[in-house]
Design a protein that fits this description.
Helices cover 52% and strands 10% of the residues. It has 138 residues and is mainly alpha-helical. The termini are far apart. The model has no long low-confidence stretch (mean pLDDT 84).
């Protein structure tokens, strides 16, 4: 889901903050003249889209980004790939052709290392049901 200019400015405030912000804090941090209610509406819409989370703080809400900037960018790229239909490879090749050498190197490195392996959950032995309380015999 692409964000509009004002939504991006609001998200930049939330990503830069050390914790959840009130509407007033976001409003004061924006570098343009906007009505307080406009910022409140934008934050409410972002919450409905799932882009931010609302946390109750007394009578007010505090807002925090639901994902990092990088996670959101990755989601947007995946959404865009989904829109190209069957020829995702051509879209990926066109994307790689447009990035600079540093971004291409970062993509190559990420592809070589791959995602982290899934966590291995150790098996817990089933309890014995033969009435014995002792462990296995050696």
């Amino acid at each position: 889901m692409a964000l509009g200019e004002l939504e991006r400015a609001v998200m930049a405030q939330l990503w830069a903050a050390p914790g959840p912000l009130t509407v007033r804090e976001v409003h004061e941090g924006l570098e343009r003249e906007l009505a307080y209610t406009t910022v409140m509406t934008v934050l409410g819409r972002l919450a409905k889209k799932g882009v931010v989370r609302q946390e109750r703080d007394g009578k007010a809400y505090r807002y925090v980004a639901a994902s990092t900037r990088e996670q959101m960018a990755a989601s947007l790229m995946l959404d865009a790939l989904g829109d190209v239909g069957e020829d995702r490879t051509a879209a990926l090749v066109a994307f790689v052709d447009r990035v600079g050498p540093e971004e291409a190197a970062a993509l190559r490195a990420a592809l070589q290392t791959g995602p982290p392996p899934p966590a291995v959950i150790p098996e817990v032995p089933e309890p014995r049901h033969d009435g014995e309380d002792r462990g296995p015999e050696s």
